[in-house]
Fold this protein.
Amino acid sequence: MSIRRVVPNVQVQPEGLARSREFYGLLGFEEVMNQGWIMTLAAPSAPTAQVSFLTEDATGPVVPDMSVEVDDVDAAYAAVRASGAEIVHALCDEEWGVRRFFVRDPSGRVVNVLGHR
């Protein structure tokens, strides 16, 4: 299994999406995704350098602290479950084209582990 990208997730109020886009635009980030409740900005010269801003999570119980995209989300889920780590949101297929689950890391942070379908 390999990691494709790691993205910090920042929870904001709805009005914070536009302000974040404007501020991080000053640093060179550009909007690459906006679903209304989540907006992702990326560096054009390094597209995996990203940051996401969320007002909520559309289907998850909490806003995760970070997202980790892997090439085999099913293998990641099996490894995490076997370790005994707390699954916060079970493995599922989302309507926006990802397969994902949430797990709590040893420091208490919630990690969204995903793969694109």
About this structure: Helices lie at 16-25, 73-83. The CA atoms of residues 6 and 105 lie 14 Å apart.
